[in-house]
Sequence to fold (328 residues):
Amino acid sequence: MKRPDMDVTKLGLGCAQLGGLYDPMAEADAYALVDAAWELGIRYFDTAPYYGFTLSEHRLGAALRSRPRGDYTISTKVGRLMWPDPNVQPGECGWAAPLPFRPHYDYTHDGIMRSHEDSLQRLGLDRVDMLYVHDIGRVTHGERHAHYWKQLTEGGGFRALAQLRDEGAIKGFGLGVNEWEVIADAMDMCALDCVLLAGRYTLLEQASLAPLMDRCARQGTRVVIGGPFNSGILAGTNKFNYEDAPAAVVERVRAIAAVCRDFDVPLQAAALQFPMAHPAVVSCIPGAQNIDQLRRNAHWFSQPLPAGLWTALKDAGLLDPAAPVPSA
Fold:
């Protein structure tokens, strides 16, 4: 099966922060951030109903609505329906000022269809380009994983996504997850056009290289890299997988940073550029809390890096020997 074209810029914008992830973002600042991304040449934007409990979709749609629809690519996610709930409180699930809607998992055929339609309403757009199944997996759902996996497979979730693609409502679909293993499981079930893998193929960890990334390259499944800073640990914070980083992770990052310093390379630049060398990867979508951070990301992403950096990291056992690396 020939995969549909996915016209994305190599640097995209992850829009969780438009929903106020950890810290609130004013409406005007959200619009200004999208405008700044546009000025930097970014044309791929990823959002989700879950981000800010629908806030991110509302803001991204408003910020893009005056732009020619053919000039950008937008992806959002399915798997959670957002139900009105006046009891939602600030800070729930990490959202500083969420809207009064509460997420309810639903990966069924009807749930996918409803989620897609609801997203179009919130975005104020007639279509999105890519739909990702959000946060399916054993780590996310624990003992409930089999239940939700059955919804997605036997319950018609994948069938709904294929129907939307075949009808031309979307260009393609895949998974948007923090677990590479469930992507491999999904690839055994159906042909995925593109997947958004957050935090699992990064400068810090490459366990997904042979079992997933190389398989995606062979089968023509595009990969978008989310969470290139592993929740912040590769960008100077102490967060890993959205929690305080364990000592072993902190020590490994210190070792990677030391090698980067030897080559006068910002750790963040190495983190953003490393995954792009893999032939399956088409885009990297870090988030940004403000315009200054966005511009720094864009600078780090394009900054020339010496080839010797990657050799030194491999020699120190800090990078998988088989991992493709950027050329100088």
Observations:
- The longest strand covers residues 73-78.
- DSSP finds twelve helices and twelve strands in the chain.
- The chain has a mean pLDDT of 96.
